[in-house]
Amino acid sequence: MSGKPPLPYGMRNVVLPGDAACQGCPIPLAWKTMSAVFGEKMILVIPACCSSVILGIYPNHSIRASVIHVAFASAAAVASGVAEALKRRGIRDTQVIAWAGDGGTADIGMASLSGAAERNHDFIYIMYDNEAYMNTGIQRSSSTPRGALTTTTPILGKSENKKDVARIMVAHNIPYVATASVGYLHDFYAKLQRAKNIRGFRFIQLHAPCPIGWRFEPRYTVKIAQLAVETGAWILYEYYDGKIHLSGASKPYLDPSKRKPLEEYIKLQGRFRNVKLEDIEELKKYIERNWDWIRRNMD
Amino acid sequence: MGLKLVLTGNHALAYAAKVARAEVIAAYPITPQSPVVEKISELIEAGIMDAKLINVESEHSALAACFGAAVAGTRVFTATSSQGLLYMYEWIHWASRARIPMVLGVVSRTINTPWNIWPDHSDFVVNRDTGWIMGYAMDNQEAFDMTLQCFKISEDPRVFLPCMVGIEGFILSHASMPVEIPDQDAVDSWLGPRRQPYVIDGSEPFALGGLSMPLETEEVFVGIQLAMKEAVNVIREVDKEYGKISGRSYGGLIQCLYCEDADYHAVSMGAWSGDLIEAVEELRREGYKIGVVRIRFMRPWPEEDLFKVLRGSKGILVYDRALSFGAYGVLFTDLVTGLALRNPDLPPIWNIVAGIGGVDITSSDFYRLTKEFVENVERGDTRIKHYWITKKGLRV
Questions:
Q1: Does the structure show a pLDDT above 90 at A17?
Q2: Which ranges carry the Thiamine pyrophosphate enzyme TPP-binding domain (chain A) (predicted)?
Q3: From chain B, which residues contact A within 8 Å (Cβ)?
Q4: What is the separation of C-alpha A57 from the centre of its chain, rounded to a whole number of angstroms?
Q5: What H or E segment, with its residue span, contains residue B190?
Q6: What CATH topology corresponds to A27-297?
Q7: Which residues of B touch A121 (CB under 8 A)?
Q8: What is the 3 state secondary structure string of chain A?
Q9: Domains of chain A by residue range
Q10: In 3-state terms, what secondary structure has residue B207?
Q11: What are the chain B neighbours of A92 within 8 Å (beta carbons)?
Q12: Range(s) of chain B covered by CATH 3.40.50.970
């Protein structure tokens, strides 16, 4: 990544110093990237999640953009209303963004997400996917991968595969779906730029490793995010015009022989410390099935 | 002059939203509320109503979407019933705490299980602790008028609270009656443009509802309680002003019939008050001096208004169409408390809970029960008592 120019963050303008994020938390990285695209002209609709806390305690607020904190299941529904009101009022310079975790998206928020997508409201939904209920204390979500320890799968680890929300959103035939990663902020930036110029419902699933929940040292957040891509466990792509467009960072890994061994990704994370060999085999099969789907739907 | 239409209660709500120029409606169908949404859809698709209808996937999202649209500066409306209202209950609280003006029609239907679509007030009264202004209409004209008044009350800067209007399912929702719609220009100048305490539209950074400490949270609650106190005057004012454009005022938070010379008072809320009034008229013909006090708004509780009309009453009979299990009828509880706060020396007060699950209470039932009450008091019964009379005559 070193060859690329820094993103036009405007760090001191929108995402302010002094938030309540944990060390190594990738969420402020993502917000800075978003601020580079939208400046303060964004209305973030945030349900219960880590971000509700990270923004700080009233009367302080660590982001100079608009935020509406909403009930857990409702990010997409509130954003629908905001987007329709802005449209009626002729306001076009402000981007409505539903910003929700995997629990608020894949679980309790699934119905409102699906509804808003089907109605094709004009806003961007970003699911930051840290693969468990981190804010409430690392409980399992449907987006937790198989084998991961959480406080509700404390000994044996999760016995089911991760729900593929991006693929569910592709099945909604919305104008734009993308996967992104906090390990690839230029890629995320480019996807936000593309999304910005599309009208209608846009969905981005942002892979966001959590040092506390995944049990790794805070300095490894970006490294682990990148390993997820390099091992093929997380696939970066866009979906528009009815096709999957594999992103540059993931292109080499279409060829399984180019991928790093999955174990390299797993062994850095304490959440996989009890993972069984059969779970790793299942994880690999799951990953391969995802790649098969990509291959079948690529342009 | 206005327009006279024959409307069902549901369509009266839809027309009120239209005349109020609601801009965003987000709703989900449920029996018996569905025709509200259907009529609004028809008005919009026919080009008669200029609004955006969001056909959401649930009631929870209906109120959430209304909240988003309202926060972003538009006038919103939705309606629901029973299970749908319970499903949106989380958002009911959220909206009032955010002090977002909006209007909700509640087409009452009892609460499951078992499956039952007939009306009582169970679904409506569960909202009493939510911080919403709560009105309940007696007929379709009042359903229309009260809904329109709700927009005005809700958007008054002294109030800035959401407002709901209840009507009984089927009894009003599916029954047609003549409804007079005031002249649109008169409504426009009376209601005025949308007012709200803040707007989130990107024009300046604004954060709503972030993490707060106990003291700040307490302040939010205090603000609602103070606004409720203000709302008492605002409701009276709005009702009077509305009379100037429509020719109809109802007396504010309560409506009193035959109260001038009444010795005894029967209290009720909603459509069955019509049957009660018939029964009382019959009893008055027999010489019983009974007045009917109809609760129009149960939040804010009309404590002062009730004290004024009930002070000196020889006996008060409160009819409730909902109860708090393990306790009493909901109107009765508030009525006794409110009167006792102003004068602890209470007359005999009886509470009859009836009509639960849509059980039909006729004017002859009201006649019999009211007469029995008065006769008991005249024989010297001074008790404050509560019972639930079932259709089979069982007293619970």
A1: no
A2: 57-205
A3: 23-24, 26, 52, 54-58, 60-62, 64-74, 76, 90-91, 94, 200-202, 204-213, 216
A4: 24
A5: helix B184-191
A6: Rossmann fold (3.40.50)
A7: 54
A8: CCCCCCCCCCCCCCECCCCCCCCCCCHHHHHHHHHHHHCCCEEEEECCCHHHHHCCECCCCCECCEEEECCHHHHHHHHHHHHHHHHHCCCCCCEEEEEEEHHHHHHCCHHHHHHHHHHCCCCEEEEEECCCECCCCCECCCCCCCCCCECCECCCCCCCCCCCHHHHHHCCCCCEEEEEECCCHHHHHHHHHHHHCCCCCEEEEEECCCHHHHCCCHHHHHHHHHHHHHCCCCCCEEEECCEEEECHHHHHHHCHHHCCCHHHHHCCCHHHCCCCHHHHHHHHHHHHHHHHHHHHHEC
A9: 27-297
A10: strand
A11: none
A12: 3-195+202-246
Minimum-distance CB partner of B24 among A67, A71, A84: A84
Instruction: Look at residue A36 in the predicted model and tell me its pLDDT.
Output: 93
Contact between B24 and A94 using a beta-carbon 8 Å cutoff: no
pLDDT (tens digit per residue) in B257-268: 999 999 999 999
Q: Which residues in chain A are contacts of B58 at CB distance < 8 A? A: 111-112, 115
User: What span, in angstroms and rounded, lies between the C-alpha atoms of A141 and A151?
Assistant: 11
Asked casually if ipTM beats, i.e. exceeds, 0.90, the reply is: yes
Q: Do B200 and A66 touch (CB under 8 A)?
A: yes
Instruction: Inspect the interface and report whether the beta carbons of B207 and A111 lie closer than 8 Å.
Output: no
Is A79 within 8 Å of B68 when comparing Cβ atoms?
Answer: yes
What is the spatial distance between Cα A128 and Cα A101, in angstroms, rounded to a whole number? 5
- pLDDT above 90 for A10: no
Preferred mutation among A41, A52, A58, A108 to probe B, highest tally of B CBs within 10 A: A58
Contact A81 B54 (CB under 8 A): yes
pLDDT digits (tens, 9 = 90+) for B333-383: 999 999 999 999 999 999 999 999 999 999 999 999 999 999 999 999 999
- CB atoms A67 and B210 under 8 Å: yes
Q: B163 to chain A, minimum CA–CA distance in Å?
A: 19
Domain range B3-195+202-246, its CATH number among 3.40.50.300, 1.25.40.10, 3.20.20.10, 3.40.50.970? 3.40.50.970
Residues of chain B with CATH 3.40.50.920: 254-388
Predicted TM-score (pTM) above 0.90: yes
- B101-147 per-position pLDDT tens digit: 999 999 999 999 999 999 999 999 999 999 999 999 999 999 999 99
**Domain B254-388: which CATH number of 3.30.470.20, 3.40.50.920, 3.20.20.330, 3.90.1150.10:** 3.40.50.920
Residue B65 is nearest to which of A58, A71, A78, comparing CB atoms? A78
pLDDT at B375: 97
State mean pLDDT over B246-252.
96
**Model confidence over B171-230: pLDDT tens digits?**
999 999 999 999 999 999 999 999 999 999 999 999 999 999 999 999 999 999 999 999
Of residues A76, A81, A93, nearest to B24 (C-beta): A81
* pLDDT score of B327 more than 70: yes
CB contact under 8 A, A118 and B57: yes
Residues of A in contact with B74 (CB under 8 A): 84-85, 88-89
A-B interface: how many C-beta pairs under 8 angstroms? 161
Whether A57 and chain B come into contact, CB under 8 Å, resolves to yes
**Cβ-defined contact of A82 to B76 (cutoff 8 Å):** no
Q: Say if residue A1's pLDDT is above 50.
A: no
